[in-house]
Amino acid sequence: MSNRMKNPIEVIPQSLKGVGNLIAAVTEGGLPETTTELVAIRVSQINGCAACLQGHYTRLDAIGLSIQKVIGVAAFRESPFFDEAEKAALALAEAVTRLADADDAVPDELWREVTKHYDEKQTAALVLCIATHNLFNRVNVTVREDPSTAKWAG
């Protein structure tokens, strides 16, 4: 697989400021880093972004994310390795990533479950995390970012 072009962030460096601000905002939101990584992995799985998945998998040891959780992300509802807060975050990630798949993409019941586990700032960070990783996925899939040569690849 070869890239169609350089990553747009390299072509238009000004865009890096916006992306950097989004990442900083998510970090300031108070979510556990393991939760943001699990969400990023699930979003990237749904969108088929191999470059993003490679980047996230290289961070697992650094943030203390167990292989049991990573393997179970796609089946988080049935997996015993996730707590209720993580399951709510992952369910929201799926719903937001698949907006067009349902008439009510983010039903009130799901929203109540998320806000039961996360305060307003954490919920805001979660929404921004999901949206940011969908942005990364859409860019990388479009330009066919090569996971073996991506700057963050191990």
TrEMBL record:
SUPFAM superfamilies: AhpD-like. Pfam families: CMD. The keyword Nucleotide-binding does not apply. One of its GO terms (molecular function) is peroxiredoxin activity. Residues 20-95 form the Carboxymuconolactone decarboxylase-like domain. Keywords: Oxidoreductase, Peroxidase. The keyword Lipid biosynthesis does not apply. PANTHER family: 4-CARBOXYMUCONOLACTONE DECARBOXYLASE FAMILY PROTEIN (AFU_ORTHOLOGUE AFUA_6G11590), BLL7811 PROTEIN. NCBIfam families: ahpD_dom. This is AhpD family alkylhydroperoxidase.
